[in-house]
């Protein structure tokens, strides 16, 4: 018998650069992103699951003119459908 509810924990981790074209030197700034999330999946039938969850995005290093780290940070929602063998 399949479990009716599952809990999933995920994390997104990334790094890169932000380029600003509005400054005379076309400044390149390093940026770091970390977004952990948790979701609850409901098994509808053997090949189908629906899930809902929440995440929080942390951004560091994006201090460029007119764009602060706090502008990119925040909570997010997750809605997903999964089909296949589990």
Provide a compact summary of the structure.
Helices cover 5% and strands 65% of the residues. The chain is mainly beta and 86 residues long. The longest helix is centred in the last third of the chain and has 4 residues, at 69-72.
Folded structure, characterized:
With about 90 residues, the protein is mainly beta. It has a single domain, classed as Outer membrane efflux proteins (OEP) (Single Sheet). The chain contains one helix and four strands; from the N terminus they run βββαβ. Strands 1-2-3-4 form a four-stranded antiparallel β-sheet. Strand 2 and strand 3 form a beta hairpin. The mean pLDDT is about 85.
Notable characteristics:
four-stranded antiparallel beta sheet, 86 residues, Outer membrane efflux proteins (OEP), mainly beta
Q: Would you give the CATH topology?
A: Outer membrane efflux proteins (OEP)
User: Which CATH top level class fits?
Assistant: Mainly Beta
N-to-C CA distance = 12 Å
- DSSP, total strands: 4
Count helical runs: 1
The appropriate CATH architecture is: Single Sheet
* Spatial ordering of strands, largest sheet: 1-2-3-4
Proportion in helices: under 10%
Strand proportion, as a percent range, falls in: over 45%
Overall number of domains: 1
Shape: elongated
Topology:
Layout: E1 5-19, E2 28-45, E3 48-60, H1 69-72, E4 74-83
Antiparallel strand pairs: 1-2, 2-3, 3-4
């Amino acid at each position: 018998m399949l479990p009716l509810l599952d809990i999933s924990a995920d994390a997104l981790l990334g790094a890169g650069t932000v380029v600003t074209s509005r400054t005379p030197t076309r400044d390149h700034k390093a940026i770091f992103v970390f977004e952990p999330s948790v979701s609850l999946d409901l098994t509808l039938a053997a090949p189908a699951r629906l899930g809902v969850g929440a995440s929080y995005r942390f951004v560091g290093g994006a201090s460029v003119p007119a764009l602060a780290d706090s502008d990119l940070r925040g909570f997010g929602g997750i809605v997903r459908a999964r089909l296949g063998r589990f």
